[in-house]
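Minimal example, chain plus zinc ion.
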Amino acid sequence: MPEKSVLIAPSILSADFNKLGAEIENVTKAGADWIHLDVMDGHFVPNISFGLPVLNSISKITKIPIDCHLMITNPEQFVDKFAASGADIITVHAEASFHLERLLSHIRSLGKKAGISFNPHTGLEPLEYIMHAVDLVLIMSVNPGFGGQKFIESAAEKIRRVKRIASDHKRDIHIQVDGGITAENKDIVIEAGADVLVAGSSVFSKPDYKSAISALR
Ligand code: DX5
Ligand code: ZN
C-alpha cells in the first residue's frame, strides 16, 4: 500500500486579517489540505487570537476541513460551541483538561474528529490510556502562543514515540506537528512519522502560496 501523503494545514494566525476570506481562498487554491485555526485565550497561552465569531464566519466560505487548535483553559466549556460553529477537527491540550477521555469522547459524539495536543515539556503517558478515543495527536514543536518561532528539535523523537504508541494500539491516527515548520526541517518530522504539517509563517510570509505549500510536502 502506498504511504499516506503528507497533509499541509496553513495556520491563519499568520494570514492578513484585513482580507481573511481571500487568504483562505488563496491557500486553498494553492493546495492546502486543512485550514488550521489557532484559538488563544490569554490564559493557557500568553496571547489572544480569535474565536467563535471568526470560525462561524469562515466556515461559510471554507471548502476544506477546518482544524481548530484550542489553546484555552476549560475546553469542556467550549467544544460544543466550536462544533456548532463549523469545526471539523477539534484539538484540545492535554495540560488543559482533568478528564481527557471524557472530553475526547464527547468531541467524537458531536460528530467531529478529536485531537489531543502536547506542549514541548509534556510527556506522552496519557496517550497509552486514551488512544482509543483519539483521532489525531498534535505535537507542539514550539511553546504555543505565537507564530514565527524556532522549531524545537526534541519534537522529532516525540513524534516517533507517538507513532510507536499508535502502532502498539493498532490505531491509524493523524500525527500532526505545529510550530516552526519550514522547507528546511520538514523532512525530519515527516521521517519521524508526522503526516499533517501545520505551517503559518512559512506559507503566509511567502509571495507564492503554491510553491510554499509544495516545498513543505
Ligand atoms: C503556535 C500555533 C501555531 C503557529 C504556527 O501557538 O499553534 O499553529 O501559528 O506558526 P509558525 O508555522 O509560524 O510557527
Ligand atoms: Zn496551532
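The CA atoms of residues 139 and 177 lie 5 Å apart. The radius of gyration is 16 Å.
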